[in-house]
Amino acid sequence: MGTVVRLEDYCKSFKSAEVLKNINLTLESGKVIGLKGKNGSGKTMLMRAISGLILPTSGKVYINDKELGRQISFPPSIGILIENPSFISNYTGFKNLKILASIQNRISDDEIRDAIRKVGLDPDDKRTFKKYSLGMKQRLGIAAAIMERPDIVILDEPINALDEAGLVNIPICSYSAKFASGYYGPFRDAAHSAPGFGDRKTYQMDPANGKEALREVEEDILEGADMIIAKPALGYMDVMKEIALNFNIPIVAYNVSGEYAMVKAAAMNGWIDEKKIVMENMTGFKRAGAKMIITYHAIDVAKWLKEE
Fold first, then answer.
1. Which residues on adjacent β-strands are paired with residue 58?
2. Which of 181, 200, 242, 267 has its CA 20 to 30 A from that of 112?
3. Using an 8 Å Cβ cutoff, are 63 and 18 in contact?
4. Is the pLDDT reported for residue 192 higher than 60?
5. Distance between CA atoms of 279 and 299, rounded to whole angstroms?
């Protein structure tokens, strides 16, 4: 059997934290390899290293004797599912995979449909990705990884969120009211997840169109949503209020990174009282109708509430 993957003295550090140290590993074709270790032991980072998603601090990775990062940028034939699969929320599963397949143009529509069937999904399902359960999303991610029959398949916790029927008995929290916004900037910069080109306005709502959010909420409730997320929160409290007045469903206010960063920056410069402003914002979200709040201020808010 020919060698597919070889790591030589591979080390990876982030600032002072060494996450992979002197890894020497040879993986041959035709074999299934499992990685076992505690949370935080570096399993996912090792998968990222083999995939070319991170480069070594020192050491080398070879794919079929070609050095990753020098002779090739990525393995030429690889399917990857690492952490949570992400797709275009307003497209069906088939349409999402068809877009991915168009990059290489190696497989036909029938082969895409076959991959979807292999993971227990219906390629003709008209529901969009955002309507999928967690288990369905995971299955679509697996289908994306295997559909081109790659030489290397890397699956990080592939059975996460799956049960025997491919269903999960958990509440559905829908991104019904997610707006295209500049408030996401700090998180995207930190996570290096800003779009490489264009923007996300094709599937996030126009900030000027609050009525669209109400239509989306109504549609999602009819399709089984148990909770509704309003994101961002600070600039869209009027939308939350309208949802609360028109629908009997819990609202989750998502207080995003830009909203958090503005408060923190102003507090660091001594322009505002951080605690008062944060608690006023939290109260505003609740007054607008939020039953739950997702916020980067959560630890501080918990501490302040405990002190009172």
1. 11
2. 200
3. no
4. no
5. 12
pLDDT in tens, 239-296: 999 999 999 999 999 998 889 999 999 999 999 999 999 999 999 999 999 999 999 9
Start-end of H helices in 147-292: 185-191, 210-222, 237-246, 257-268, 274-288
End-to-end C-alpha distance for the chain, whole angstroms: 67
Listed as own residue / partner, the contacts of 135-139 with beta carbons closer than 8 Å and 24 or more positions apart are 135/161, 135/162, 135/163, 135/166, 135/167, 135/168, 136/93, 136/166, 137/84, 137/85, 137/87, 137/161, 138/85, 138/162, 139/166
pTM above 0.85, yes or no: no
Please identify which residue in the block is written with the tokens 């070594």. Answer: 56
Q: Residue 102: which residues within 8 A CB-CB, separation 6 or more?
A: none
In our burial notation (b when 16+ CB lie closer than 10 A, e otherwise), range 159-198 reads: eebbeeeeebeeebbbbbbbbebebbebbeeeeeeeeeee
Q: How far are the Cα atoms of 95, 99, 128, 185, 201 from residue 252, in angstroms, in the given order?
A: 29, 31, 21, 21, 22
What 3-state class would DSSP assign to 74?
Answer: coil
Residues near 237 by beta carbon (within 8 Å), at least 6 away in sequence: 284, 285, 287, 288
Residue pLDDT, tens place only, 107-162: 999 999 999 999 889 999 999 999 998 888 989 999 999 999 999 999 888 877 66
By mean pLDDT, which of 1-10, 199-208, 213-222, 275-284 is the weakest?
A: 199-208
- Please count the other Cβ atoms lying within 10 Å of the Cβ belonging to residue 211: 10
CA 25, chain centre distance (Å): 29
Q: What is the DSSP letter of 72?
A: B
Six token digits for residue 35: 């990685």
